[in-house]
Amino acid sequence: MTGFFGGGGVCTHCRCRAMVPLKRRRKDGGAAPIAGVQERAPVNRFPGVEIFLLERRMGSSRRAFLTQLARRKGFRVQDTLGDSVTHLVSESNSGDEVWEWLDRQTGGQTPGSLSLLDISWFTDSMETGRPVEILDRHRLQVSAPRSDPEEPRISAYACQRRTPLDHLNKIFTDALEVLAENAEFSESEGRGLAFRKAGSVLRSLPFAVSRMEDLRGVPCLGEHSRKIIQEILEDGVSGEVEGVLRSERYRAMKALTGVFGVGVKTADRWAREGLRTPGDLLTSGHRLSREQEAGVRYYEDLNCPVTRAEADAIGEIVEEAVHSILPGARVTLMGGFRRGKEAGHDVDLLITHPEEGKEEGLLGKLTSWLDSQGVLLYQRVSEGSGGRGRESGPMDHFHRSFSILKLGEQPGAQPGASSADQTQEAAAPRGQGGAQGRGWRAVRVDLVICPYSQYAYALLGWTGSQQFERDLRRFASQERDMSLNSHGLYQREQNRYLPAASEEEIFTHLGLEFIPPPQRNA
Ligand code: CTP
Ligand code: MN
Ligand code: MN
Question: Looking at residue 369, what is its pLDDT?
Answer without folding.
Answer: 97
